[in-house]
Amino acid sequence: MTDPTFREATAADVPAVVALVESAYRGESSRAGWTTEADLLAGQRTDAGGIGAVVDAPGSVLLLAERDGALVGCCELRQVGQVAYFGTFAVDPAAQGGGIGRRLLTRADAEAVRRWGASALEMTVIVQRADLIAWYERLGFTATGERRPFPYGDERFGRPLRDDLEFVVLRRPTAPTT
């Protein structure tokens, strides 16, 4: 397999990004990978409006990873002071476990430093996702101790299948550029 290439998303990429994110987190297709949230949430993970807003917003970028011309991963970076929020992170379930996520995270780290001089990446993960949190911890993220509520009642983020969902905030320092 060839190494992935990276580029910034445009408005034309929005439908493909929505399909990728949905396949990685929701429904039966997500069960082919290990990032599924299908046992925690039903319905959509995102929509064209949400992805389009990331593409269009000043101070944000949606990075794409492609292999042989096919979209295999994406992530959002958004400037929040000296920190870059890292989210909308998805890898095609059929490609998970092959290093694309690590490469995309490394690229995101470098982009956050290059674009904004970010000192850290910050993200939120559903606290019940212990396996995913452990993966991020192996990549240098640590829990800040902060928790954020899940947006119950806002079906743009899905329909919760349990009533105890919340987010844990993770952070890791960015790698300085030389």
UniProtKB/TrEMBL annotation:
Domain N-acetyltransferase: residue ranges: 4-166
GO cellular component: ribosome
GO MF entries: acyltransferase activity, transferring groups other than amino-acyl groups
Top-level taxon of origin: Bacteria
CDD domains xref list: NAT_SF
Pfam families, per database record: Acetyltransf_1
Record-linked InterPro entries: Acyl_CoA_acyltransferase, Bact_Acetyltransf, GNAT_dom
Keywords recorded for this protein, A-Z: Acyltransferase, Ribonucleoprotein, Ribosomal protein, Transferase
Record's protein name: Ribosomal protein S18 acetylase RimI-like enzyme
Organism, scientific name: Kineococcus aurantiacus
